[in-house]
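Just scan my protein:

. . .
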Amino acid sequence: MSLLGIDYGTKKVGLAVSDETETIAMPLAVLPNSPALLGAIGKVVAQRGIVGIVIGESKNLKWQDNPLMKRIHVFADELKKTFTVPITFEPEFFTTVAAKYGSEGKMIDASAAALILQSFLDKRHKKKELRSTN
């Protein structure tokens, strides 16, 4: 069982997956944002046993929605209609810029998706650690 991370863009969509322990996020693929996108994501969900989807939440530095966020919400609604797994938003700031420093050209968006997913995983593990120490 794994989680799927998504870095949504108007032209390209980056995908990343977690390992089965939901500890580490790894870049998976960059897909064109086209009518075939949901079908391609569906294949990943089925093949990888995806149990949840984490989408990058695009905010500006004042914590307001960027113009892209409206399209991300529409996309998330399509995912909710198509898949039965929980869908979560994870705030992202400059993930594409950060990904450019650690990945090759064609996989930048997938690396950005991995950064989004890793942020989500790290927060969740910290919450579990806090609960277990209290």
In short: The mean pLDDT is 89. The helical segments are 37-48, 68-82, 95-100, 108-133. The radius of gyration is 14 Å.
